[in-house]
Design goal:
Elements: H1 2-6, E1 12-18, E2 25-26, E3 36-43, E4 57-62, E5 65-70, E6 76-83, E7 86-90, E8 98-104
Antiparallel strand pairs: 1-8, 2-7, 3-6, 3-8, 4-5, 4-7
Length: 105
């Protein structure tokens, strides 16, 4: 039954995060009291300026586990576990670089 429940979503949230520097940016909808079951990361739609350079590396920290993605990995889906904390950092933040994050709860 738990496996079935991981594919049932009761809520979702969309957030655009400006990646203009190298600081960690939190996904505000993901908390221990509102864990995400699935997260999709992708370039901000509709804006050429939002495209990451081929050399950009995004570091995603979910529940103290770290993933490193480059621009060719987007869109990227993270699922299969309850995510209670989520931050994203860019190695080369530039003005106009946005990442879109869609979370399912």
């Amino acid at each position: 039954q738990e496996a079935v429940n991981m594919d049932a979503f009761g809520d979702f949230n969309y957030q655009e995060i400006l990646m203009d520097d190298e600081t960690a940016n939190s996904v505000t909808a993901v908390t221990s009291s509102n864990p995400a079951k699935k997260v999709v990361f992708y370039n901000q739609p509709g804006s050429a300026a939002a495209t990451f350079d081929a050399t950009d590396v995004l570091t995603i920290t979910a529940n103290s586990k770290t993933l490193k993605l480059d621009a060719s990995d987007l869109p990227f889906t993270l699922s299969g576990l309850l995510i209670t904390s989520l931050t994203i950092t860019s190695n080369d933040g530039e003005a106009g670089d946005y990442i879109s994050v869609l979370t399912f709860h």
